Amino acid sequence: MRLEKIDILNFKNIAEAVLELSPGVNCLLGRNGMGKSNLLEAIHFMGIARPMRSVPESALIRHGQDAMIVKGDYVMDTGVAERVSCGIVKGKGKTLKRNGKEYSRISEHIGKFPVISVLPSDSELVSGVADRRRNLMDTVISQAFGSYLTQLIRYNRFLESRNKMLRAGVNDRLLYESVEAGMAETSTAIYQTRKNWIEEISPLFREYYSRISGDAEKASLKYRSVLADKTPEMIFEETRGKDGVLGYTSQGVHRDDLLTGLGDYSMRRLGSQGQVKSFTIALKLAIYDYLKERNGITPILLLDDIFDKLDSERVGRIMDLVSSKDNFGQIFITDTNREHLDETIASLRGESLMLAVENGTFRTV
């Protein structure tokens, strides 16, 4: 899949832009805060229908404006042309259309136009709270299996109902069991799908990390869930009294986590900035391969500030990986350094485009 053209109106600091894009590598050159990452976020927004970072969707609207819209013309791997438009109006919410027809549910869009984003903030996947890692799992798996997203939505509804009962001090055991039966069914499906995902993606991840690091160290990714040792019914029975005091459900798949390892130790505790960035890039590239294999669609790869915190050897290995494998399609790279981008274009070969970005405007270099 490739994005041939993007039409942007009032997206963050981009007042208006219509860009014809390269099917190969697209480099965005400019100082910090000029709008390079905003273009990547607009592409991500069309593909995932949600912001690239944890911000309210209204924050995507340009300051002083009441609405924004982003439109993209795609060519799929099959050669079929597709158009996606995604807009937000303050106070009215979001609209998402494919070929001029609005989706009845936005969840129907997930997985149709896959995008993999490598961001500076990805370090929080290692150093941050479990929510970040769990959200990554759910976002990726939802793009591969529509049924998973359905189960996740159902589980969260049951979870919300149970938490309301706990806060209200409800003591009716049968009422709890009726809600917990739904939670048990959905959480079992969620756990098994996540477990299968980790088993499938881990070998890809280890290979990428080994190649990026020059085989200097070993990294690992493991799934931690309370369901590995207990059934949902056992968990609810054991924690119902405690949860009544707390006012929320303290255990379940909504507390699952990914453990990040460096050799025999924790990447979170001992990893350097370069090792953490290598870890997150390896993980995102493994996700790229996973989604392409599962969906049969080549994702778009967004590399935001890829050179920061990495030594030249690791950067070189990453560029070699991206350029040497046949499966990487359209790529977008941002940087403040023209030399970095010139070297990238030379290493990746093929078709390319360089755009200078200044105050939300774009100029072909």
Q: How would you sum up this structure, described in words?
A:
With 365 residues, the protein is α/β, with parallel strands linked by helices. It is built from 10 helices and 15 strands. Strands 2-1-4-5-6-7 form a 6-stranded antiparallel sheet, with helices on one face. Strands 8-12-13-3-14-15 form a 6-stranded mixed sheet, sandwiched between helices. Strand 12, helix 9 and strand 13 form a beta-alpha-beta unit. Helix 5 crosses helix 8. The radius of gyration is 22 Å and the shape is globular.
Describe the protein's topology.
Layout: E1 2-11, E2 14-20, E3 25-29, H1 36-48, E4 67-75, E5 81-89, E6 93-98, E7 101-102, E8 115-118, H2 124-127, H3 130-144, H4 146-168, H5 173-213, E9 219-224, H6 232-246, E10 257-262, E11 265-266, H7 267-270, H8 273-295, E12 300-304, H9 312-324, E13 331-335, H10 338-348, E14 352-358, E15 361-364
Parallel strand pairs: 3-13, 3-14, 8-12, 12-13
Antiparallel strand pairs: 1-2, 1-4, 4-5, 5-6, 6-7, 9-10, 10-11, 14-15
Helix pairs in contact: 3-4, 4-5, 5-8, 5-9
